Automatic annotation (TrEMBL):
It comes from Savagea serpentis. The keyword ATP-binding applies. One of its GO terms (biological process) is DNA synthesis involved in DNA repair. GO terms for molecular function: ATP binding; ATP hydrolysis activity; DNA binding; enzyme activator activity; single-stranded DNA helicase activity. It holds the Pfam family AAA. Residues 40-154 form the AAA+ ATPase domain. SUPFAM superfamilies: P-loop containing nucleoside triphosphate hydrolases (SSF52540), post-AAA+ oligomerization domain-like (SSF48019). The lineage of its organism: Bacteria, Bacillati, Bacillota, Bacilli, Bacillales. This is Replication-associated recombination protein A. InterPro entries: AAA+_ATPase (IPR003593), AAA_assoc_2 (IPR032423), AAA_ATPase_RarA/MGS1/WRNIP1 (IPR051314), ATPase_AAA_core (IPR003959), DNA_pol3_clamp-load_cplx_C (IPR008921), MgsA_C (IPR021886), P-loop_NTPase (IPR027417). Belongs to the AAA ATPase family. RarA/MGS1/WRNIP1 subfamily. Keywords: ATP-binding, Nucleotide-binding.
Length: 431
């Protein structure tokens, strides 16, 4: 049998009513839906992961209006393509231009197209999988009106879409006699991480790969579906926005002491295969979020990440899992780096001063003549079991009463806090 165009392409919506999901943007009660129904299409930027319907969204809008619709990809289009779009707009009055991968838009394309977007002769609908505030040029963003963030489709949305494709005789698989259970369709819907394109492709692959009996019925077997689902990728570009969102989610889950969530995001990241980026984030977390409350965690995580590099994947997941669980359940303190940030902020605010003379270098002839010296060696004066301490000024005069370190009572920092407070009392008593 000749299938022609892929099922995912054939099933693209032909009207706003055909769209599945994204009701927070294009539902009948939303302003955008009402605008388009009245014939007004604003320029807009569609942002979301692959397969959530950005291209379908643009096509549905185009089909719901009488305006001519053109499509370009910013990675392959040049100045001549943009000039052709401008010529089309002049001939036809106004056009809708869908520009996929808009974050790849170069300056030459911008300079050529932007005036026509500003005067409304070209209604620009841009699509990107990358965070538009990081990757889309501000000149483009400023002319796009609202940024519409599309969400991953739910399993329920995808089940609806798969059923529609299965029974559509014109564009789908409705002319074929296919035996596939609701449970199998649900498995497909739940296995593609909200990606409609992958769901439809998986359904089409399952049908193509299944045997047809003497009566012409195609039966999809569970074993075949297991094999196809095991081969699909659902994780996206490992250097895209979703990857960095996963890193962020991992750190916030560890910080929030949620072991199960942290392990889930670690698994997601490791399936992307970028071990270096994961290790780097885990090391930062050990010192940023665990810190002085449990100083042993830092060396433990360093050992785990070095072991993971030596082992490689998949074995490298074992020490990393141990490190993540330990960090989740460890006492937590960010006092050390927050204290340093206060000192940095003081410097940036101009709160600087001369180093006290008794702290300056004296390992050269003439230091005494410059007034440098008088430093008291703390090791010569012991206090209890702490070791050496002597009351002398270390900060410049302008900052001598500053307190950057603000300890908290968490884990092993409880002991450090007691020592800090004791030394502060000695200092205040001596002064």
């Amino acid at each position: 049998m000749s299938y022609g165009q892929p099922l995912a392409y054939r099933m693209r919506p032909r009207s706003l009513e055909d769209l599945v999901g994204q009701q927070h943007i294009i539902g009948e009660d939303q302003a955008l839906y009402q605008l388009i129904q009245k014939g007004h299409v604003p320029s807009m930027l569609l942002y979301g992961p692959p397969g959530v319907g950005k291209t379908s969204f643009a096509n549905a809008i185009a089909q719901s209006t009488k305006l001519p619709f053109y499509s370009l990809n910013a990675t392959t289009s040049g100045k001549k393509d943009i000039e052709q779009m401008i010529a089309n707009a002049r001939m036809e009055g106004s056009i809708i231009l869908f520009l996929d991968e808009i974050h790849r838009f170069n300056k030459l394309q911008q300079d050529t197209l932007l005036p026509h977007v500003e005067n409304g002769s070209i209604i620009l609908i841009g699509a990107t999988t990358e965070n538009p505030f990081h990757d889309v040029n501000p000149a483009i963003r400023s002319r796009m009106g609202e940024i519409k963030q599309l969400k991953r489709l739910t399993a329920e949305d995808l089940f609806t879409l798969l059923n529609r494709a299965l029974h559509d005789e014109e564009r789908g698989l409705g002319k074929q006699r296919i035996h596939i259970t609701k449970e199998q369709l649900q498995r497909i819907a739940e296995s593609v991480n909200g990606d409609a394109r992958k769901a439809l492709t998986l359904l089409e692959s399952a049908v193509r790969a299944s045997d047809e009996d003497e009566e012409g019925t195609i039966t999809v077997e569970d074993s075949l579906l297991d094999s196809l689902i095991g081969r699909i990728g659902v994780f996206g570009d490992k250097k895209g926005s979703h990857f960095y969102n996963l890193l962020s989610a991992l750190q916030k889950s560890v910080r929030g002491s949620d072991v199960d969530a942290a392990l889930y995001y670690l698994a997601h990241l490791l399936e992307n295969g970028d071990l270096i980026a994961v290790n780097r984030r885990l090391l930062v977390m050990a010192y940023e979020d665990i810190g002085l409350a449990n100083p042993d965690v830092g060396p433990h995580v360093l050992a785990a990440t070095e072991a993971a590099i030596r082992l490689g994947l998949p074995e490298g997941r074992i020490p990393l899992a141990q490190a993540v669980v330990e960090m989740c359940l460890a006492e937590k303190s960010n006092s050390a780096y927050q204290s340093l940030d206060r000192a940095i902020a003081a410097i940036h605010d101009g709160k600087t001063g001369d180093i006290p003379d008794h702290l300056k270098d004296t390992h050269y002839v003439g230091a005494t003549e410059l007034g440098h010296g008088g430093y008291q060696y703390p090791h010569d004066t012991t206090i209890g079991t702490f070791g050496g301490w002597v009351n002398q000024q270390y900060l410049p005069d302008e900052l001598k009463n500053s307190q950057f370190y603000r300890p908290i009572d968490a884990g092993k920092e409880v002991r450090l806090n007691k020592i800090y407070q004791y030394l502060q009392q000695l200092k205040n008593k001596s002064n």
